[in-house]
Amino acid sequence: MTTFLYARVSTAEQTLDHQLTQAREAGFAIDDDHVIADHGVSGVATRLCEREQGKRLFDLLRHGDTLVVRWVDRLGRRYDDVVETIQHFMKKGVIVRTVINGFTFDGSTKDPMQKAIRDSLINFMAAMAQAQAEGARDMQRAGIALAKASDQKAYRGRKPSFTRQQVEKVLALAGQGAMNTSQIAKEVGLQRMAVTRIILNPANAKQQLATWAM
User: Fold this and answer.
1) pTM of this prediction?
2) Most CB atoms closer than 10 Å: which of 2, 80, 91, 198?
3) For residues 49 and 39, is the Cβ–Cβ distance under 8 A?
4) What is the per-residue pLDDT for 46?
5) C-alpha 3: how far from its chain's center?
């Protein structure tokens, strides 16, 4: 039984070392030779099974192995792709675990209620991954159009009061559904209104960070 980390690095802001460090800090014992990564690959345009290292991952994983990912968006950014991929691995006897929030998806679950909760969570997280990708794409297009029309600097607005890590943590906690807005705000160190704006419009929050190169 082996623990593998799969990392997808699609932009200059993301690094393999960062994803590996986060996984190890979360308690996962991962050997360097068990780290599988694809670089410069879009989670929207390319399915995991179509990526160079993604294909290798499908061949490497065996019954009883554990697959660790920072979050489900590393597997893909399209709802159907993510759901099908996780279900495929679970049927193969592979346990899928996330670094953020420590979710575990285990195909050995027999209780129908637990299976329903597990599958609902997978579906929700897959839908969120696609929604975030679509929102970021739309905002990027709008930003490009705006930059062409006028000086980009004139439209930067107020510098965000949050960091990229805080945005990701807010969205992860909101997706888990175990904490209300005030509790999330206290957990991540932000004002409640800032947390509310992030949850209601995550794409806008990420665009603000991108505009300020944060």
Assistant:
1) 0.61
2) 198
3) no
4) 83
5) 19
